[in-house]
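FAQ

Q: What does a record look like?
A: Structure on top, sequence underneath. For example:
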């Protein structure tokens, strides 16, 4: 099968959509399919180079500072269209909604190719990025536009994929009138397996941040308002008053980085909280492997790939309660849910003061269902349905 995947974000970007797209592409190629990824250019200042055999087609884009790492791309490229016509794809798979995603839909119309669309991002939770005046009226209008576009894009696709039940329910609330395939993104679990720990990389990280026998908690992701990292910082502020043998690693970059660094300084917590900056895909497993627990207060995830990565690495996840995570975290078994800062503080102190090796084992074992092979099998089935439905339409 010949497949063209369209995404506004891809390697070297580190985010859920880029990760999902890369894993899907790798699995498709592994199974003998011809794949072209149409995406934006690497971020300004990046030294990242694509391998020629990876078949990556880059389209010019303008970096959006407020969205950190995302680029607004042209909705049409004559050069790309020429290459896509030559490829003659059997199916188009769109991963994002904007510049590249719109181009993918245009290609589908021109080449009369079925379009599969994965709705990854709950954009209504990100309306603050295009509402700088923080007007409630403007925010309501923006959310209505986002909901309308989400419904339009979903209904106009040949087949629709979502990563979770929560996302499906949101689209149905928006007025979606279409069958939905729920397919969680699979992971390359071997990368995160504790048996494959890179001891040299782990030692380097420990030396760099002065980690000895401290209890290590880690957040990994975009440093942005919707991730609610301030809740985690406020919890650490109280935890160190009761047990200061702790270090909190905040791994990633984003638009809220400077603000949160100032908050940590104001709280006099620089000894306990470290901002590591963004790390490459190759480095990420080692950050999980040096950690005792993964924490996040975000309730805007559509699947929660970082929770799955962390638990596949053999550490429990502590998450702010979100229905979306009910199938990932089993409270008290492979991790914990919290609903308040006080609840988070109690959980971390409990983990610091008791053996939780059984929970680590349960965390790793419970993530085996998220392997990339199963992900591939489900997606390729959707492609076949899309091609069939386009032929009989």
């Amino acid at each position: 099968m010949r497949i063209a995947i369209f995404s506004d974000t891809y390697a070297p970007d580190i985010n859920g959509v880029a990760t999902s797209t890369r894993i899907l592409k790798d699995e498709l190629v592994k199974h003998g399919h011809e794949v072209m990824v149409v995406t934006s250019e690497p971020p300004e200042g990046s030294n990242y180079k694509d391998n020629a055999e990876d078949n990556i087609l880059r389209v010019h884009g303008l970096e959006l500072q407020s969205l950190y790492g995302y680029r607004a791309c042209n909705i049409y490229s004559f050069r790309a269209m020429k290459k896509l016509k030559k490829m003659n794809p059997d199916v188009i798979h769109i991963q994002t909604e904007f510049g590249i995603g719109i181009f993918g839909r245009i290609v589908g119309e021109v080449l009369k190719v079925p379009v599969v669309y994965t709705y990854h991002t709950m954009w209504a939770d990100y309306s603050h990025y295009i509402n700088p005046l923080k007007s409630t009226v403007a925010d309501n209008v923006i959310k209505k536009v986002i909901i309308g576009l989400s419904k339009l894009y979903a209904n106009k696709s040949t087949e629709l994929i979502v990563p979770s039940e929560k996302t499906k329910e949101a689209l149905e609330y928006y007025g979606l009138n279409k069958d939905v395939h729920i397919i969680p993104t699979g992971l390359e679990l071997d990368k995160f397996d504790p048996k494959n720990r890179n001891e040299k990389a782990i030692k380097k990280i420990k030396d760099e941040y002065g980690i000895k026998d401290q209890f290590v908690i880690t957040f990994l992701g975009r440093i942005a308002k919707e991730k609610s990292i301030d809740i985690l910082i406020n919890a650490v502020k109280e935890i160190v008053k009761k047990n200061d043998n702790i270090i909190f690693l905040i791994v990633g970059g984003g638009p809220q980085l400077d603000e949160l660094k100032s908050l940590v300084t104001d709280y006099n917590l620089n000894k306990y909280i470290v901002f590591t900056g963004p790390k490459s895909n190759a480095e990420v497993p080692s950050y999980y492997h040096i950690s005792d627990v993964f924490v996040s207060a975000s309730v805007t995830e559509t699947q929660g790939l970082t929770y799955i990565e962390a638990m596949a690495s053999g550490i429990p996840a502590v998450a702010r309660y979100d229905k979306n995570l009910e199938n990932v975290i089993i409270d008290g078994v492979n991790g914990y849910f919290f609903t308040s800062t006080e609840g988070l503080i109690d959980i971390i102190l409990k983990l610091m003061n008791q053996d939780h090796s059984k929970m680590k084992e349960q965390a790793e074992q419970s993530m085996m269902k998220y392997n990339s092979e199963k992900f591939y099998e489900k997606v390729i089935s959707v492609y076949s349905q899309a091609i069939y439905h386009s032929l009989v339409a």
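Q: Is there anything notable about this one?
A: The mean pLDDT is 91.
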